[in-house]
Structure formats: C-alpha cells, structure tokens
Amino acid sequence: MPRKALALSLLVLGMPLLASCASPYAVDPAKYAADPDCARVMLAMPDVLGGLDKRTTTSQATAAWGDDEGVVVARCGVEPPGPTTDECLSVDATTGTQDWIIDETDDSWIATTFGRSPALEVTVPKVRADQALGDLLAVLSGPAALAPTNGLECL
Fold it and tell me: Which InterPro entries did the record assign (predicted)?
C-alpha cells in the first residue's frame, strides 16, 4: 500500500476515536491550588452535579460540569474570605453545615466557602437558573467540608 494511502487509512480509522474525546474545559487554577488539602476536596467531587456530567479541566484542583452553554466550575485554593459583613449562606449537607459567601455578577453566581482554608469557589452561570444554587451547594458542601476549618463562621 502506498505511503499516502496508508496515512489516509489510519486517519479515517482514527477519526471515531478523536470524535469521542471532548477537549478539556479551560479553567485558570486558583492561587493555592497546590495546597495538599485541595486534593481531598477535589477527589470527593461528584461525577454528576445537578444533572450535569463532570468533564475534564486544564488545571489542578478544578472541576467542571455541563456543556459549553453553561459550565459550572469549582476551583479549590482560592484566597479564603476573612471576617466579613457580606451575606453568608449556611447550607445543610450530609456532613454538616457549610457556610458560603455568595457574589452575583451579570451572568453568574460565585459562591466561596467561608470558614475553610483552602477555600473552594464555585461559579454557576445564570443560564443554569433551572438548577437551584442551594441544591448545587448542598451537594458540594460535603467535599468542601474536607478542607480544614479556619475558625470563621457565619453570624
């Protein structure tokens, strides 16, 4: 078989394999992503979150769920919030209660664990409005609670 025909045959045979591989979702790592406590948090992340399948990411200590229309992203190792007067949401989970600080942007909600170091940040696009933010945080509160406490609590 001529070299050109062989290369073309290999390309055609390999196309289904390439088509089945989704590219990793690009996520910037958090400042303290290398913190060993992030490994425990990230290993406990669910494979499915709010009906969205987990996908691979490009950075250490990150996770993503969903399609390109609205991907939910978790990043461990963000700067833990210090004492604050911001509204704090306490979410009950099977492992206990986890506190979150919620910020709203034009297109997403950003929830950051409060009272944990390293902190976990979760970004939920508003196009996922059918997914209740509290329900998602209840699922993620268990893994988030694997990070050590830093003594801060919601008032």
Answer: DUF3515 (IPR021903)
Rounded to the nearest 10 degrees, how much is the dihedral formed by the CA atoms of 115, 110, 142, 29?
-90
CA dihedral 113, 117, 120, 121 (to 10 degrees): 70
Residues belonging to the chain: 155
Pairing of strands 62-65, 119-125: unpaired
Average pLDDT on 79-90 reads 93
Please report, in angstroms and rounded to a whole number, the separation of the first and last CA atoms in the chain: 75
H/E segment holding residue 113: strand 108-114
Q: What is the pTM of this model?
A: 0.84
* Residue indicated by tokens 């704090």: 88
The Cα 80–Cα 16 span in angstroms is: 44
Q: Quick one: which of 67, 21, 59, 26 has its CA closest to 42?
A: 59
pLDDT at 151: 93
The pLDDT of residue 123 is above 70: yes
